[in-house]
Amino acid sequence: TTIYILNGPNLNLLGQRQPEIYGHETLADVERRCAEVAAEKGFSVRLFQSNHEGTIVDQIHEARQAACGIVINPAAYTHTSVAILDALNTFEGPVIECHISNVHKRESFRHHSYVSLRADGVLAGFGIEGYELAVRRICSLCAGG
Ligand code: DQA
């Protein structure tokens, strides 16, 4: 069974992008770490990244058939996208929202999340370890508890 890990705009530059905020590790490191955590529980992961809102909507639609749960870092779309919220509302499995930085410690425009209206859990400020924690949680929710 597969867990989708969806990433929004500018996260392709993870590791190079404002490392004082987002750290030095890359999305490939995130994928490797999450794959290890998931494998321990008998799950696999697929990690996607897009800079385009509609592509993320399409990936969520694909997840309806292909994934038992979703970990999503919508990046800046967190704070703007009704379309991503609506797409997540069509998905029946568990959804965990994950932010590398502590958005609540930052500018006030980062304090509101549309995606939180759907997320079963939210992580912020755990660095890329947050993705591992989110995957762990999705594994337990997908396993029925
Ligand atoms: C982010 C926080 C967002 O506010 C920001 O736009 C991002 C990344 C995070 O992971 O901390 O691009 O989602």
TrEMBL record:
Keyword Zinc-finger part of the UniProt annotation: no
The keyword Amino-acid biosynthesis is annotated on this UniProt entry: yes
Pathway linked to the protein: Metabolic intermediate biosynthesis; chorismate biosynthesis; chorismate from D-erythrose 4-phosphate and phosphoenolpyruvate: step 3/7
Transition state stabilizer (site feature) positions: 17
Reactions the enzyme catalyzes: 3-dehydroquinate = 3-dehydroshikimate + H2O
Keyword line: Amino-acid biosynthesis, Aromatic amino acid biosynthesis, Lyase
Pfam families assigned to the protein according to its UniProt record, in alphabetical order: DHquinase_II
Residues given in the record as substrate binding sites: 73, 79, 86, 100-101, 110
InterPro entries: DHquinase_II (IPR001874), DHquinase_II_CS (IPR018509), DHquinase_II_sf (IPR036441)
Record EC number: 4.2.1.10
Active site: 22, 99
Domain of life: Bacteria
NCBIfam families membership: aroQ, PRK05395.1-2, PRK05395.1-3, PRK05395.1-4
Family to which this protein belongs: Belongs to the type-II 3-dehydroquinase family.
Function as written in the Swiss-Prot or TrEMBL entry: Catalyzes a trans-dehydration via an enolate intermediate.
Subunit structure: Homododecamer.
Alphabetized HAMAP family for the sequence: AroQ
Name of protein: 3-dehydroquinate dehydratase
